[in-house]
Write a structure and sequence with these properties.
Layout lengths: L1 H15 L3 H8 L3 H8 L7 H11 L3 H4 L13 H9 L6 H26 L2 H25 L11 H5 L2 H19 L9 H7 L3 H21 L2
Length: 223
């Protein structure tokens, strides 16, 4: 816990924009003790962890470095079994929650890995690709619900002609090019490294891969 907790604790304070003295006072401890926590010299008790979670509005799993999702969205094995074996028995709201975890956790791992490369272009294009996909899904829902599409700047005709898919394709091309041109060292992305580095989240990544592979297999059967 020591390295992950201390790093996250320090980053959260800096992100909040408060001094170590102020944070310590609001958390009810001395500045010296907070400094020890942030530098990994001492480990806190559960009472402090609870206070810090409330103070920074994050889950204990996030604070302890067990997940990249601030609300602690770790997928349990039982949920994965439901997703792959009993999907027809799940209520829509429950299935939606599960799919959200799969997508959010997988995206968290992806952007954490891309952030380690330091390639701004790769990060930007990955964001553009995913944003276009979300835009299309949201707009389709907005339309089905009877919303006024003047809310969007892209005209209805351009949207119906699938211009957003073209935008996604261009982003994917630029993303691939950015990775090809990257000259630094890539972080390990094999199954074992993901499992060790992203406990809980790696299950979501594996499930997303599996679900997608299964859909592709169905497409191949139809050829």
């Amino acid at each position: 816990m020591k390295s992950n907790f201390s790093r996250v604790l320090s980053l959260l304070r800096q992100e909040k924009g408060v001094s170590q003295r102020k944070a310590a006072a609001e958390l009810g401890i001395s500045q010296a003790l907070l400094s020890h926590y942030e530098n990994g010299i001492r480990e806190p008790g559960l009472n402090f962890v609870s206070k810090a979670c409330d103070y920074y509005h994050v889950s204990a799993d996030y604070l302890l470095g067990r997940t990249l999702s601030r609300d602690g969205a770790i997928i349990e094995m039982e949920e994965l079994a439901d997703a792959s074996e009993a999907r027809e028995n799940l209520r829509g709201s429950i299935l939606a929650k599960l799919q959200k975890k799969l997508v959010v956790n997988t995206a968290s791992v992806l952007f954490d890995l891309l952030g380690q490369t330091g390639s701004r272009e790769a990060v930007a294009q990955a964001g553009a690709y995913l944003s276009s996909g979300l835009y299309q899904l949201f707009r389709q829902l907005y339309r089905a619900a009877g919303g006024n599409e003047s809310y969007f700047s892209t005209g209805s005709r351009a949207f119906d002609l699938d211009v957003l898919s073209a935008d996604m394709t261009l982003a994917r091309i630029r993303y691939a090019k950015a990775l090809e041109e990257y000259r630094g060292e890539f972080p390990p992305v094999d199954a074992q490294s993901l499992a060790e580095g992203y406990q809980g989240l790696a299950q979501a990544v594996a499930q997303v891969f599996h679900n997608t592979d299964e859909r592709v297999k169905e497409l191949e059967k139809g050829e």
